[in-house]
Amino acid sequence: MTLDEWLSWQERLHPEEIELGLERIGQVGARLNLLSPQAKVVTVAGTNGKGSSIAILESIVCTAGLSVGVYTSPHLLRYNERIRINGKEASDADLCDAFECIDRARNGESLTYFEFGTLAALELFRRHPLDLIVLEVGLGGRLDATNIVDADVALITTVDLDHQSWLGESREEIGLEKAGILRPGRPAVIGEYDPPSTVVQYARELGTPLFKVGCDFSFVVEESSWSWRESNGRELYHLPLPALRGEVQIANSAAVLEVIHLLGWMERVGEAQIARGVADATVPGRFQTIRQEPEVIMDVAHNPQAARVLAQNLASTAGNGETIAVVAMLRDKEMATVVALLAPEVDHWIVGGLQGTRGVSSEDMLKVVESEVKDSVVDSFANVKLAYEAVLEGAKRNDRIIVFGSFHTVAAVLNTP
């Protein structure tokens, strides 16, 4: 089968698109000897900041000449983006070969689309002499497929409201689910100043050493650089600002440096490679400018915490023209809250619809925007492609267009010629 045929088959294999739990995938992973990799493992959970943090860590480690395998989700344009070895995406042939290996080993066990992908990543990583494996949690942590592997260092970036139907209705409940990636005696980095008390309490009960920003490590932002300090006195001065825009990316970089420190790799990596890795790391769809005059910015922000960061970035980079938003979202997101948070920074709203069972139609999205926006013009189009083409045609050279609301929204524009 081709890669597209494999993926289509996987989507139909399991009766549920999402079914959290480790029993099925754990049994298949054990048969394939995938549960105890030889490389160091860093598992990253969090509501926002996972992709950026992983990109920074990957960039630093690759710059230092170490070998790293990275598994992330979702993808923007190609499934191959999910699995990278030394910065290179897995080929169709390698993915198909891994899928075939997993299919043979599952002995009729039903696996979800994400479970198949997780096992494929671990199978491909097993075939390479890696120094580091980085796993991005797909949903929550405790019952996520990536949690079949014990992390040498865990990183929890942030905890906020998202996926409430799966993870709980409060930060405390969601935090406890994310804390499921912690292990006894193995360190964990917390990348936010005020994590839910459930994370701290669970770590204490489990015997997991926690290293929190503002307590065990810190950072100071200067005019054109930043500095990092560990509680034992280690310091790095005058680091370059991340290529990824926004002060939040400095916080992500600081947490990544703490991960490297806890791996015992500071000397192995080296300060020059850290600086270059931070400066070079990029992630598509994170306040990404894809053209000028008018400026077009892509951002996958789809929950309240990400919307706050996006609003801050827009406020700090405002120009002379109007800011025009192209928005489309999924039904299970906090649509009204996201729109309300961005309303002060947007002059003109363009609504598009998303296909699929989770997608919100342009009519429903229009109702949400009109209920939250009082002083802006709002237009509606059947889909994101039409919305983007219309705004691009009507925008002035000094206007700014921000496309946001979902990975699907950003992908629709990136796929537009």
What does this structure look like?
The protein is α/β, with parallel strands linked by helices. It folds into two domains: 3-280, 3-Layer(aba) Sandwich (UDP-N-acetylmuramoyl-L-alanine:D-glutamate ligase), CATH 3.40.1190; 288-414, Protein-Tyrosine Phosphatase, Chain A. The protein contains 16 helices and 17 strands. The strands form three sheets. Strands 4-3-2-5-1-6-7-8 form an eight-stranded mixed sheet, with helices on both faces. It has a six-stranded mixed sheet with strand order 12-13-17-14-15-16. β15 (348-351), α14 and β16 (377-380) form a beta-alpha-beta unit. The protein starts with a helix and ends with a helix. The mean pLDDT is 94.
How much of the sequence lies in strands comes to 15-25%
Q: Give the helix/strand class.
A: alpha/beta
Q: How many beta strands in the DSSP annotation?
A: 17
Mean pLDDT: 94
Q: Numbering strands along the chain, what is their spatial order in the largest sheet?
A: 4-3-2-5-1-6-7-8
According to CATH, the homologous superfamily of the largest domain is Mur-like, catalytic domain
Q: Enumerate how many helices there are, as a single number.
A: 16
Main beta-sheet annotation: 8 strands, mixed
Provide the number of structural domains: 2
How does the overall form come out from the CA principal axes? globular
The low-confidence parts are none
CATH topology of the largest domain: UDP-N-acetylmuramoyl-L-alanine:D-glutamate ligase
End-to-end Cα distance, whole Å, is: 29 Å
Roughly what percent helix? 25-40%
CATH architecture of the largest domain: 3-Layer(aba) Sandwich
CATH class of the largest domain: Alpha Beta
Radius of gyration: 21 Å
